[in-house]
Amino acid sequence: MLTGKQKRFLRSQAHHIQPIFQVGKGGVNSNLVKQVEDALEARELIKVSVLQNCEEDKDTVAIELSTGSKAELVQVIGSTIVLYKESVNQKRIELP
């Protein structure tokens, strides 16, 4: 689990990055979860955008993605979800 200080740090890091996934009408599926896992391994910190035509609630999408990819849910702000998972091979972010 992340501490409040670590979450604040990750939010400040995530501020400048663009969402690399969009969750739309299809919602969360196993293919999307796999792609999110791969992206987290490569980048550690990603943003996911929830589109207006998504049938699921953004909080539900956030929980499904974080549990499916075994990542930490850093923040849900507006329709954007910020996820963090420490990389096994390409560790870049040093948490405070």
Automatic annotation (TrEMBL):
Protein species of origin: Fictibacillus barbaricus
Source organism superkingdom: Bacteria
Domain CRM: 1-96
Keyword RNA-binding found: yes
Keyword field: RNA-binding
Statement: the UniProt record of this protein carries the keyword Protein transport: no
Name of the protein: Ribosome assembly RNA-binding protein YhbY
InterPro entries assigned to the protein according to its UniProt record, in alphabetical order: RNA-binding_CRM, RNA-binding_domain, RNA-binding_YhbY, YhbY-like_sf
Pfam family name, one: CRS1_YhbY
Signal peptide boundaries: none
